[in-house]
Design brief:
- With about 375 residues, this protein is an alpha/beta fold.
- The chain has 2 domains: about 1-125, NAD(P)-binding Rossmann-like Domain (Rossmann fold, 3-Layer(aba) Sandwich); about 130-325 and about 370-380, 2-Layer Sandwich (Dihydrodipicolinate Reductase, domain 2).
- Helices cover about 35% and strands about 30% of the residues.
- It contains 13 helices and 18 strands.
- The strands form 4 sheets. The chain has a 7-stranded parallel beta sheet, sandwiched between helices.
- A hairpin with a 4-residue loop joins strand 10 and strand 11.
């Protein structure tokens, strides 16, 4: 079998690494506009991975690259996901991506009929959040007779935080600002509403060495999940986990206009405050610390008339042996596992849909465990 990975950055290299470990994979094409980056990443994996230079904006070249593959996975910018989806449908190949923007996903979903006619499966949002956490939410909800409340908490953190923000970038600064400034979609009292990001700060406790942390509203983490649970639950929300004090400090900067889009003069250069802020964040929040990922998904409802609470929990760390970060592992490996399931015929869905609608959760969790990504689940009595 043959796979194509588009984008040879951190996520793309981790995707290529994991797929290339499978014995039934013969070839992985790792494509990037920067051939040197693709070559260096390929050299660090194995001989199955072949670097390819490709401009993702060249539609004909992308269709040609995809043709003949068993699956294509995008680790490029979310802005390319719609055009890559159309190319995959034309090439007749399964397509997956890491998501990142709800508007793009909505456009992809409109291609459902074309994908079904082409007999391909397109799965946006296959990463961590959205992605893995959505699958856990739906899998957990299936265990209840009725579901009242779903609370999803995820965060990528440095293991050795440094002031003032006690945070290190584990993906792009632009993506971080989007999460922190765009409205968050939730279900409250059975209705879908939009609320402010960086609000509703709560304390959340994990085992040592973490202890008491904070979680607060951010956008985009659950994507289409509110539509799925519309009319089925009373409460559904998603919050990002950080070390205590992070939210108030970051909110102050945003309130002061650091994420603003108005043009400003810096010497002879015109920039927006947001552009300058992104440059500063990229420079200051990259201190090369080993990272970790925390996840907790809590589903509350009734089973046989009793109030129950199901809790999924995961703590994952930077892998010192492979030098793959926790964010790369927990974002890319669920995606590579789902891609392998598609290629092997273990997922038979056709059309465009989020992965939580068709990915077998038990198989996914089993495969993650084989990669030393362990997700525990436990039932406790609950007060609703």
């Amino acid at each position: 079998m043959k796979a194509v990975v588009i984008g040879a950055g951190m996520m793309g290299s981790a995707l290529a690494y994991d797929i290339a470990q499978a014995s039934d994979i013969e070839e992985v094409l790792l494509a990037d506009i920067n051939f040197e980056r693709a070559s260096n990443a390929a050299k660090n994996i194995n001989s199955k991975v072949k670097p390819v230079k490709i401009d993702a904006n060249s539609y004909e070249d992308i269709v040609g690259l995809m043709t003949g593959a068993d699956a294509v996975i995008s680790a490029a910018s979310y802005s390319l996901n719609y055009i890559l989806t159309t190319a995959a449908i034309e090439a007749g190949v399964h397509f997956l991506d890491l998501g990142g923007n709800n508007d793009v996903v909505k456009k992809q979903l409109l291609l459902n009929r074309q994908a079904r006619e082409a007999q391909v499966c397109v799965l946006p949002n296959c990463g961590l959040a959205p992605g893995l956490v959505n699958i856990l939410a739906i899998e957990g909800a299936k265990k209840f007779d009725t579901v009242d409340q779903i609370n999803l908490r995820v965060g990528g953190l440095p293991q050795h935080p440094q002031p003032p923000l006690n945070y290190q970038l584990v993906f792009s600064a632009e993506g971080l600002l989007n999460e922190y400034t765009e409205p968050a979609e939730v279900i409250r009292n059975g209705n879908i509403i939009f609320i402010n990001s960086l609000d509703d700060v709560e304390e959340i406790i994990f085992p040592q060495p973490f202890g008491a942390l904070e979680a607060f509203n951010t956008s985009g983490g659950i994507s289409t999940l509110c539509d799925y649970f519309r009319g089925k639950v009373r409460e559904l929300d998603y919050k990002t986990i950080r070390y205590k004090g992070h939210c108030s400090k970051f909110k102050l900067l945003i309130d002061l206009g650091f994420a603003g889009s108005e043009a400003l003069m810096f010497g002879n250069t015109v920039k927006t405050a947001r552009e300058l802020f992104i440059e500063l964040l990229t420079k200051k929040l990259d201190y090369k610390d080993e990272d970790c990922i925390l996840l907790r998904a809590t589903i509350k409802g009734h089973i046989n008339g009793e109030k129950k609470s199901l809790v999924y929990e995961m703590i994952d760390y930077f892998d010192k042996q492979t030098r793959i970060s926790a964010m790369m592992r927990t974002t890319s490996f669920p995606t590579s596992i789902i891609a392998l399931m598609l290629m092997r015929g273990e997922i038979n869905a056709r059309g465009v849909m989020p992965p939580e609608e068709c990915v077998p959760a038990d198989k996914l969790l089993e495969e993650l465990k084989m990669r030393n990504i362990n997700i525990t689940q436990s039932f406790v009595e609950a007060e609703l």
